[in-house]
Request: fold
Amino acid sequence: DAKTTQPNSMESNEEEPVHLPCNHSTISGTDYIHWYRQLPSQGPEYVIHGLTSNVNNRMASLAIAEDRKSSTLILHRATLRDAAVYYCILRAYGGATNKLIFGTGTLLAVQP
Amino acid sequence: DGGITQSPKYLFRKEGQNVTLSCEQNLNHDAMYWYRQDPGQGLRLIYYSQIVNDFQKGDIAEGYSVSREKKESFPLTVTSAQKNPTAFYLCASSATGGSNQPQHFGDGTRLSIL
Reply:
C-alpha cells in the first residue's frame, strides 16, 4: 500500500471548521482513501472514504485533489468530542486482504 | 445495538502465562481482525480471518494464536512466547474480507505484565 503523510498535530477552536490534510503522492489508480479517527482509550472509528469525487456523510466531508495526490478531511463545525487522532489510509481495491496500515496520524486538539 | 464487544477491558499477565482476549460481534460480519497498538504508535495487524474456520497471520503473529470456530467470535491468545505483550489490543470486523470494506472496532483490551 502506498504511504501517506499527515501533520503530527493541529489545533482548532470549537464551532469552527477544521481541514485535516493528507499527502499521498504515490497513490495508484485503484487506491481508495479512507479516514479513521481514534478517541483516547477507544478503538478507531471509520469516518469516510472516497476514490475520486468529493464525498459527504453525517460525520465529515472528504475533498480529493484532481490529481489524487492529496486529500483533505473537513469537519464542518468542530466540537470537543472531535478531539482525536485522525488517520488517513490508502486501501487498494481488490487487494488480497483488508489490512489497514496505520501511520501515526494527526492529533487534533479542539479548544473551547 | 450491533457492535463489537471486547473483554476484559484490562488484563494482567504473569510471566510464563497464556491469556486469552475475547472478541464477539453481532454485526453478521464475515471478516474479523486483531491489531496491536503500542503507545504513540499506529495499529499493527496480528491475525485476520475472512471466514469461519480460516485465519491468516498478519505482520506480527509470533507469540499469538487465534481460532475462528464461530462467525461471531474470534478469540486471541497471547502465549508465553510473546516476550513483550504489554499493549492495547483491538479487535475489528468487516462485512467481507474485501479491501474496500470499512472496519468496525471494539473498545480494546489493555494488557499489562505483572
Observations:
- The first strand of chain A starts at residue 9 and ends at 13.
